[in-house]
Amino acid sequence: MVGLKDQFREVIRTTLPISIVILVLNTLTVGATPIEFCIEVLCVSMVIIGFALFLYGVEIGVLPMGKAVGLHMARKGSIPVIVLLVFVIGIVVTIAEPDVTVFTTKVDTVVNELNGTALAVSIALGIAIMMVVASLRMIYHISLKLILAVGYGAVILLGLMGPQFIHGIAFDSGGVTTGPITIPVMIAMGMGIGFMASKGGNQMENFGMIGVASIGPIITVMLYGYLTGLSEVTTVPPVTHVDPVGVEFFLEMLAMATLDTVLSVLPLYAIFILILGVFIRCTWRDLWILSFSLLFTGAGMVLFLTGVYSGFMPLAEEIGVYLVQNDAGIWILVVGALFSFLTIAAEPAMKILGDQVETVSKGALKRRTITFVVGAGVSMFVGVGMYAMSLGMSTVYWVLFLYMVTVMMLSIMDDDMVGVAYDAGGVATGPMSVAIIMSMYAIIAEAIGGDIALNSTFGIIALIALSPIMSLSLMGVILRVRNMNPKPGDPGAKDGTSEDQKAE
Q1: 154-163 burial, b for 16+ CB within 10 Å, e for fewer?
Q2: How high is the pLDDT of residue 488?
Q3: Residue 149: what pLDDT?
Q4: Which of 176, 207, 300, 382, CA to CA, is 20 to 30 A from 431?
């Protein structure tokens, strides 16, 4: 188990690069008063400290407890009990997810015709239903490729019909739901249920709960958009400036982050206490460890979200407006690609998934390899998307085509990589991505105004989620080809290597 000191060291290594780049670029382009600069440095420090505390709390309590719950449900629970518990946990963690709150607030601001509360409920229902589907898939050993093909087939079919304005919102809703609260719970429960269902078999097949769950909100939000009966919405007026960061704004974001964290952690704590006390009948020591870990997790979330909301988000928006107003051209692509790659490296859930993949594959798939491939994919997609949007092209139309490509790639990619690839699509769209990439992308769209603002303010989260699926799917195809035609010394060669090594 990684200690708190090691967590700080790792967080500084991954988070400092994006922090320095965004601070320097903002100072050189937009400029900052001494007070604003001090607040920005404080926010960076809060993100680093909060990130480390959050990861430490997740590792010592949330992941082990979530896995224990999954193991117990699969070992002793009847199917109706499993379905009920997974559904309730899915609703609780989604409603409590800070990213969902940020997203629905943004939708309320841009599209007044949609109700934020109803949108949040439709997102939660989608996640909960597909978490149940993902759990039943592992229990009954249903092909993950089949579930994904059917799910995204439904998304593509719905995307070809109905009001156009809802597409970007629906696509993004599948990504923002997988944030700092939902990811640890989904990963842990999925590994627990999968371990019992597979009876010690290939544990790489137990990934995929996040990828399957992410499909649900896309479908339910599209259905919600159709049920509203709206065919068009109000065009967004162009954004001409972003208010600078001040003390009052910082305190407001601190209060919001504290409230978001309390509303996130307490329901999760209550549901875990209920399950551990009633179904598993754990010891007082287990309850103490859970309480202690959630205290670290909550404190880390408050610091992390405050730093992100009051520092990284407004800085990214200021840079975005500056790029549009100064006709930055190809530099929009460069800045978008650079920010995207560094942001993925600093994403909390990316580290959690990478560690789990490295552990389960027994080192055959390294966390740094997964992070690099995901970062490269997101960097390319977002950079090109931002530049295309600055030229007047609406990127939301690409998403349906890319969904079709990913579904076709399922038939030829390595089985062990399917769950990892689609899970990575969910974890890449965490609070750092929402704060930096989505904020910059959305503000560029709003600064351009007109139809671009209406059609492209939403859709970037979908591109971020699709990027890891595409890049890791390609990696999976390459691995499958290599395993079919191994060279001497390769993991797939017939030299007595284990199945775990073949997973590479």
Answers
A1: ebeebbeebe
A2: 54
A3: 92
A4: 207
- Lookup: tokens for 263: 């509303």
Query: CB-based burial of residue 326 (10 Å sphere; 0-12 exposed, 13-18 middle, 19+ buried)?
Result: exposed
Q: Supply the pLDDT for residue 151.
A: 92
φ/ψ bin of 475: left (φ > 0), alpha (ψ from -120 to 50), beta (otherwise): alpha
In this structure, what DSSP letter does residue 244 have? P
Identify the pLDDT of residue 495.
Answer: 43
Residue 110's nearest CA partner among 242, 225, 236 is: 236
Residues recorded for the chain: 504
Confidence (pLDDT) at 129 = 94
For residues 421 and 426, what is the distance between their CA atoms, to the nearest angstrom? 9
Can you give the pTM of this predicted structure?
0.78
CA distance 480 to 134: 24
Q: What distances in angstroms separate CA 205 from CA 2, 136, 193, 421, 450, one per listed residue?
A: 25, 14, 11, 12, 46
CB atoms within 10 A of CB 238: 14
Question: Is 208 exposed, middle or buried, given 0-12, 13-18 or 19+ CB atoms closer than 10 A?
Answer: buried
For 191-230, what is each residue's pLDDT tens digit? 777 777 766 566 677 788 888 998 999 999 988 887 776 5
Q: Alpha-carbon torsion 385, 388, 392, 398, what sign? A: negative
φ and ψ at residue 444, rounded to 5 degrees: -65, -45
392-404: b (≥16 Cβ within 10 Å) or e: eebbbebbbebbe
Rounded to whole angstroms, how far apart are CA atoms 444 and 452?
9
Place of tokens 């998934």: 353
Calculate the dihedral angle through the C-alpha atoms of 483, 359, 47, 447, rounding to the nearest 10 degrees: 30
Residue pair 177/98 in contact (Cβ under 8 Å)? The answer is: no
Q: Which residues in the chain show pLDDT less than 50?
A: 491-504
The enclosing H or E element of 449 equals none
DSSP characters over 253-304: HHHHHHHHHHHHHHHHHHHHHHIIIIII---HHHHHHHHHHHHHHHHHHHHH
Distance (Å, whole) CA 134 – CA 131: 5
Q: What is the DSSP letter of 146?
A: H
Determine the 3-state secondary structure of 84 from DSSP. Answer: helix
Q: 40 to each of 47, 257, 274, how far by Cα in Å?
A: 11, 16, 41
Residues 6+ apart with CB under 8 A from 457: 110, 168, 236, 442, 445, 446
Distances in whole angstroms, Cα of residue 465 to Cα of each of 145, 357, 376, 424, 462: 18, 18, 13, 8, 5
How far apart, in whole angstroms, are the C-alpha atoms of residue 389 and residue 264? 35
pLDDT at residue number 132: 92
pLDDT for 503: 41
